[in-house]
Design brief:
76% helix; disordered C terminus; mainly alpha
Length: 313
């Protein structure tokens, strides 16, 4: 039952991470924010791993897990949090990093011996086209003096996040699948904290405003993302082909955009000039939200059928 529900649950939890990052971005610098998240996750997971005896094993396995953490948690989350802190919309960064299946599909063949069907390549191409259709107008808005949050700096951070997540997923599948899930997560956060903690010490003031929304965002990111979503991801990578698991990331932009629209009135359309406000009635917003929700549900069902996670009627 858990494996049948895991893909949909993973999409929702992972998408909420972009929202949590945006919610707490104003109260802490990105690497400081992440350092706190990793420390709290370690404080919760390490005692559980000790009681389970899952921290034992050779240093080679621990090193593999730490390196995966440096990539998936350090490089990926560091790039995402930095881009959001500097204005990139949550829906846009989610869309960019959802291109991971393109890189994973290209690299999984020579590195892991996996093959992609023609329908997968068609999906990858359509995903790339969709991303370009969203990003290109944002760049044009920036050049025209509109607020878009998309520029060379935030795009570079997003690219680092994308490459780090791809490399971490491939490395996890090839070298770190034998590590216990809980124990492996502990070593991953140690690896991530080494990278992100150093960045916070070197480049940030480490000032935190402990507002209610920041405390909520931090708590959600620790419990739902650093523990729940990451353990689900490791479980899915073990049970399915890397290219199949990576295809779930195509569903995350739609889910993230729906959440960002509902919570922040954030849209993937044209940008806006300083001081301008979006127009539209409450009924229009509700209708659009219902439409996006139905579209997301159809995408999740279709993806699950394609990957064999649910049966066709």
């Amino acid at each position: 039952m858990l494996l049948r529900l895991a893909p949909a649950l993973f999409v929702v939890l992972w998408s909420s991470g972009f929202i949590g990052s945006k919610l707490g971005a104003a109260d802490a610098e990105p690497f400081t924010f992440l350092s706190l998240r990793f420390i709290l996750a370690l404080l919760l997971l390490a005692p559980v791993a000790l009681l389970r005896g899952s921290l034992t094993g050779g240093w080679r396995a621990r090193g593999h897990a730490a390196f995966v953490g440096a990539l998936i948690h350090g490089g990926y989350l560091g790039g995402v949090f930095w881009a959001i802190r500097h204005g990139m919309p949550a829906g846009v960064i989610a869309l960019i990093v959802s291109l991971q299946p393109i890189l994973t599909g290209v690299l999984a063949g020579p590195l892991l011996g996996e093959r992609l069907a023609a329908r997968h390549w068609a999906g990858l191409g359509l995903g790339l086209l969709g991303a370009l259709l969203i990003i290109a107008p944002k760049l044009a808005d920036r050049q025209a003096g509109l607020e878009s949050g998309v520029d060379a700096a935030t795009l570079s951070a997003a690219a680092i996040a994308l490459m780090s997540m791809t490399a971490g997923t491939l490395y996890q599948k090839k070298f770190a699948t034998s590590v216990d899930l809980v124990g492996g997560a502990v070593w991953q956060y140690f690896g991530a904290l080494a990278i992100i903690g150093a960045a916070a010490l070197l480049f940030e003031t480490r000032t935190v405003t402990w507002s209610p929304k920041f405390i909520f965002a931090l708590g959600w990111l620790v419990l739902a993302l650093s523990i729940g979503a990451i353990l689900l991801l490791m479980l899915l990578i073990r049970q399915h082909a890397v290219s199949g698991v990576s295809s779930l990331f195509y569903l995350i932009p739609a889910c993230t955009a729906l959440m960002a629209y509902a919570l922040f009135d954030e849209r993937l359309g044209a940008g806006r000039r300083h001081g301008d406000r979006d127009c539209g009635s409450l009924s229009d917003r509700r209708a659009q939200a219902r439409f996006q929700g139905r579209a997301l549900a159809k995408m999740i069902v279709a993806a699950h059928r394609d990957e064999g996670w649910i049966s066709k009627p």
